Amino acid sequence: MDRPATDVIPLGTDPLTVRSEAGWYWNVVSEYSKRICYNIFMLIDTHCHLHDPEWFTKDEQHEFLQKAHENNVEKMICIGTNHEDSLVARDFAQKHTNVYWTYGIHPEFATGTTTNLMGTEADHYAFLETIRSATSEGEAASARNDGPEERRVSKKYSGQQWLASDKLCAIGEIGLDYHYDGYDRLAQIKLFEQMLQLALDYNLPVSLHLREAFDDAFAVLDNFPQTRGVVHSFTGSKRDLKQALARDFYIGVNGLATYTTPALPPLERIVLETDAPFLTPAPYRNEKNGPQFIKNIAEYLAEKFQTPLEEVAKITTQNAERIFKI
Ligand SMILES: [Zn+2]
User: Fold this and answer.
1) For residue 49, how far is its CA from the centre of ligand 1 (angstroms)?
2) How far is the CA of 33 from the centre of ligand 1 (A)?
C-alpha cells in the first residue's frame, strides 16, 4: 500500500472501450443462438482478481481470458480491493468484452489511516463525483433498475460515459475480517458502513468478504436492510448460512468447497466464483487459479447435488445475471 495515489481518470476515456451498438447486438445474438441451438452452457466467474498486475502478467491475463472462453466462462467480474486496485479493475473491464468490475475497499485495508488507502480523501470524493456525473442526476438509480437489455440499448445511455459506467456492477469486496489479531475492528465496521451506504446510494449490489465476523456483520447489515448481493467465499457455519439466506443474500462458492466441507445453500442461491489467483479447486491446487477453473467448481456442484452440469450452469448463471445485471 505504498503505491502512489493515482489521479482520477474520467470514466470512458480509453478508446478501446468504445463498443458499437451493432457489435453489442451481434454479441447477444450469437451468444443466445449458441445457447439455444447447441445447448452450450455458459458460466460466470462472479469474483476474480485477473486485472491485478501483482498476480497476473499481461500474457497470463490474455492466456486466462482465452482459457476461460474455451471452458464456457463467458463473463467475469473483476473485484476491487482498494481505491487504486478498483481503478485498475475498471480499466481492465473497459478493455475486455464481458468483463465487469466492482469498486470496493477490503476490510484488511481498514485502519486509522483508511482514507490514505482510498487515495487521498479528495481523490475518493472526486471519484464518486465522476461516477455521479457519468450517470447524471437521477439516471444512476433508474439505470440500475432496468434490466441489462434496457440499459444497454437505450439511446439515453449511449456514449462513452455510459459504456464505462455500465460495467461497474457492484460495490465490493467489502465486509469484516477478524481472522488476524492486528486488525482494527472498529475501523473495519466504520469502513463497512461507508461502503454499504455507497452501494445504496448507487443502487448497486455488494460482494461481501466476511471471515470470523458473521455476528457483527449481520448486526451492521441490519442497519442497511435494502442491501442485496453475495456473500463471497462463504466460510461460516450452518447458522451463519441461515442468517445470510434470511437476509436474501446469495452465496459465492469457489474452490474451497472442493477440499473443505462448507455449509451449502440450494443451487437457487449459489453463484460461482474463483477468487483467482487464490483458492484453486482440487485437484489443481498447485496451479495458479484463473476464471477457467469455474467449470471445475460447477462440476463439483453437479456431483454434490446430483444434477446435470448444464443445470448447475443455467441456475448459477441466471442468479449472477440477475444480481449483478450483467
Ligand atoms: Zn477476492
Assistant:
1) 7
2) 33
Is residue 222 domain-resident?
yes
* CA 50 to ligand 1 centroid distance, Å: 10
Ligand 1 geometric centre to CA of 20 (Å): 31
Domain-located, residue 26: no
Q: What is the pLDDT of residues 240-290, one digit of tens each?
A: 999 999 999 999 999 999 999 888 999 999 999 999 999 999 898 999 999
**How far, in Å, is the centroid of ligand 1 from the Cα of 177?**
12
Query: Domain for residue 182, yes or no?
Result: yes
Over the chain, what HEC string results? CCCCCCCCCCCCCCHHHCCCHHHHHHHHHHHHHHHHHCCCCCEEEEEECCCCCCCCCHHHHHHHHHHHHHCCEEEEEECCCCHHHHHHHHHHHHHCCCEEEEECCCHHHCCCCHHHHCCCHHHHHHHHHHHHHHHCCCHHHHHHHCCHHHHHHCHHHCCHHHHHHCCEEEEEEEEEECCCCCCCHHHHHHHHHHHHHHHHHCCCCEEEEEECCHHHHHHHHCCCCCCCEEEECCCCCHHHHHHHHHCCCEEEECHHHHCCCCCCCCHHHEEECCCCCCCCCCCCCCCCCCHHHHHHHHHHHHHHCCCCHHHHHHHHHHHHHHHHCC
CATH number at residue 214: 3.20.20.140
- Domain of 192 in residue numbering reads as 63-110+167-324
C-alpha of residue 79 to centroid of ligand 1, in Å: 6
The total of structural domains in the chain comes to: 1
Prediction pTM value: 0.76
- 227 is a domain residue: yes
pLDDT (tens digit, 9 = 90+) per residue, 56-77? Answer: 999 999 999 999 999 999 999 9
CA–centroid distance, residue 278 to ligand 1 (Å): 8
Q: How many angstroms does the Cα of residue 70 sit away from the middle of ligand 1? A: 23
